[in-house]
């Protein structure tokens, strides 16, 4: 039986993880610790319903208490459903405590991918992605030698503004940007999906998770969200991951990996899903995607700087302090201000993250 610490239990992924654990049943898995940021009421409700005695509310107890949940001796696996780089310290300590990691969060690999994956290798822990695209690639890559892999392709729904003319993007409201065409998710990732920053974050995540150079990772817009990832093999053949767009699938796979168990989800409907399109993304219209990919080319601390700035700029957009296009414009200015460190330490990464947040709050 696998004992899980679920970090970010009150969010979209957190709540779906609880569904999956309940579906798998107590003989297979049990949640033994929970954490949230502010929503103490739901956290307590979840703890009562699941019979969990160990909880942490970051806004009240501090991130150290979340780290404590992630490193409890009784925990086998930590599911990381916290949004943003705030998950960095809990994951760092969980890896050092030898815990298996189920990673939904994408921001921490964007901030500290080189350091984190180095720690994963040194401590010989399993890190299984939960993000649907990286889970798709993980499943396609399973047991393949690096020499067999030519290219990874990450698909993007294109977000709510895929067909919106460039000129109309000046008027975008938070309500419009929060209306994602194919996925229902937390607010930060939904805004990132509207700017396509989400895809840049996934490319960076994949770069570290699979140790593949950035030039061998591409993005394709696929509005139907049926194919979640493609691997091009050295002989020119492709492996595709095709599934319903339901996060409970990658969550369950991360928990049961390498085993596959039945889910409660209906079978994929091939007749209702006959139309599939793939087009390259528009890097002029979606400035955030372009900037995120440029940050990866620059490397070092630049991706963490961009990630932290983006987190604050998204919050400011949601508070109506900034326009939707302003997110990209401010990010471009922020990138000019940062002199990246090639091989930052954890302490340096945390300091750069904090500095970027301060600057992004008033740019
Ligand atoms: N939702 C999806 O379908 C999806 C798909 C792929 C990947 N992801 C990734 O998974 C992560 C979670 O996404 P989500 O959509 O589930 O987000 P969400 O609905 O906003 O939930 C975030 C969770 O993290 C907690 N949290 C937020 N800030 C925190 C902090 N500073 N310290 C500690 N806990 C904090 C929140 O607690 P409160 O509720 O108390 O604020 C909540 O439990 C993100 O990195 C996202 O990119 C999500």
Describe the structure.
This protein has 15 helices and ten strands. By secondary structure, it is an alpha/beta fold. It has a six-stranded parallel beta sheet, sandwiched between helices. Helix 6 links the parallel strand 5 and strand 6. Helix 12 runs parallel beside helix 14. The chain is globular and about 55 Å long. It starts with a strand and ends with a helix. The mean pLDDT is 96. Bound molecules: NADP nicotinamide-adenine-dinucleotide phosphate. NADP nicotinamide-adenine-dinucleotide phosphate binds next to helix 1 and helix 9.
Averaging pLDDT over every residue, what do you get?
A: 96
Shape: globular
Strand content: 5-15%
Distance between the termini: 50 Å
Side by side, the strands of the main sheet go 3-2-1-4-5-6
Specify the biggest β-sheet.
6 strands, parallel
Number of strands: 10
Ligand identities: NADP nicotinamide-adenine-dinucleotide phosphate
Radius of gyration from the alpha-carbon trace, in angstroms? 19 Å
Question: Which class of secondary structure composition applies to the elements?
Answer: alpha/beta
Helix-strand topology string: EHEHEHHEHEHEHEHHHEEEHHHHH
The low-confidence parts are none
**Which bin fits the share of residues in helices?**
40-55%
The count of helical stretches stands at 15
List the helices and strands and how they pair.
Elements: E1 2-7, H1 12-24, E2 29-36, H2 40-50, E3 54-57, H3 58-61, H4 63-70, E4 77-80, H5 88-96, E5 100-103, H6 107-122, E6 127-129, H7 132-141, E7 149-156, H8 174-177, H9 187-195, H10 197-209, E8 217-221, E9 227-233, E10 238-242, H11 248-256, H12 287-298, H13 302-318, H14 324-337, H15 346-362
Parallel strand pairs: 1-2, 1-4, 2-3, 4-5, 5-6, 7-8
Antiparallel strand pairs: 7-9, 9-10
The structure holds NADP nicotinamide-adenine-dinucleotide phosphate (NAP).
């Amino acid at each position: 039986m696998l004992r899980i610490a679920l970090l970010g239990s009150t969010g979209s992924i957190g709540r779906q993880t609880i569904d999956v654990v309940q579906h798998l049943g107590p003989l297979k898995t049990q949640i033994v610790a929970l954490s949230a940021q502010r929503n103490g009421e739901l956290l307590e409700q979840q703890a009562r319903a699941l019979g969990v005695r160990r909880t942490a509310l970051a806004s009240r107890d501090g991130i150290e208490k979340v780290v404590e949940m992630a490193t409890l001796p009784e925990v086998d696996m930590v599911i990381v459903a916290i949004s943003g780089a705030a998950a960095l310290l809990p994951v760092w300590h969980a890896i050092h405590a030898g815990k298996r990691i189920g990673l939904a969060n994408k921001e921490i690999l964007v901030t500290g991918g080189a350091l984190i994956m180095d720690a994963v290798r040194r401590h010989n822990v399993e890190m299984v992605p939960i993000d649907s695209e990286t889970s798709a690639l993980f499943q396609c890559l399973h047991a393949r030698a690096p020499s067999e892999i030519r290219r990874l392709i990450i698909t993007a729904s294109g977000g709510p503004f895929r067909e919106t003319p460039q000129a109309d993007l000046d008027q975008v409201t938070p309500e419009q940007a929060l209306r994602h065409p194919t996925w229902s998710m937390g607010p930060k990732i939904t805004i990132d999906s509207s700017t396509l920053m989400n895809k840049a974050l996934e490319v960076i995540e994949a770069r570290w998770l699979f140790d593949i150079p950035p030039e061998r990772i591409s993005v394709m817009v696929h509005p139907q969200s049926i194919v979640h990832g493609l691997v091009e093999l050295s002989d020119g053949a492709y492996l595709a991951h095709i599934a319903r767009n339901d996060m409970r699938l990658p969550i369950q796979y991360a928990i049961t990996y390498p085993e596959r168990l039945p889910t409660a989800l209906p079978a994929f409907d091939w007749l209702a899903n006959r139309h599939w399109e793939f087009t390259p993304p528009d890097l002029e219209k979606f400035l955030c995607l372009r900037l995120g990919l440029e940050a990866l080319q620059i490397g070092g601390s630049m991706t963490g700087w961009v990630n932290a700035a983006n987190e604050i700029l998204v919050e400011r957009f949601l508070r109506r302090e900034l326009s939707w296009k302003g997110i990209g414009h401010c990010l471009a200015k922020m990138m000019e201000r940062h002199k990246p460190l090639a091989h930052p330490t954890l302490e340096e990464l945390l300091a750069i993250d904090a500095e970027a947040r301060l600057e992004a709050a008033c740019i």
